[in-house]
Amino acid sequence: MDRIPILKMGRFLLVTIQVDLYDRLATNLEADLVQAVSTTGARGVLIDISALTIVDSFMGRIIGNIGSMAKIMDAETVVVGIQPAVAITLIELGLELKGVHTALNVERGMQLLQEKIGPEDETTDDDSSTE
Length: 131
Hints:
The protein is α/β, with parallel strands linked by helices. The chain has a single domain (6-116), classed as STAS domain (Transcription Regulator spoIIAA). The protein has four helices and five strands. It has a five-stranded mixed β-sheet with strand order 1-2-3-4-5, sandwiched between helices. Helix 1 packs parallel to helix 2.
């Protein structure tokens, strides 16, 4: 598997990582996600890592990079499903995931993205013409 699927759900991109990430796969995910944000105009990225039992410093940096690049492109990033052992590892490694929000699960992550981004932009065709 050389790619992790990226699903578009309205204004958001959803990534569910179901396999352990090796370096090349993580790098491909980073590039693919940034490209997807650019081409789709997504306003949010939700990354589900609940299946991961190990996150090393490289993967932690990749997640942080995704958050930073998405923020530059006007998109919020939420990571969900962090296992307790993974959280402990991230803290012990001293990794700060700047620009990345966290939530317990996908449902709460989607709610958080909705809150961060706000209501959908409404395009009005109100010409306000006078009669």
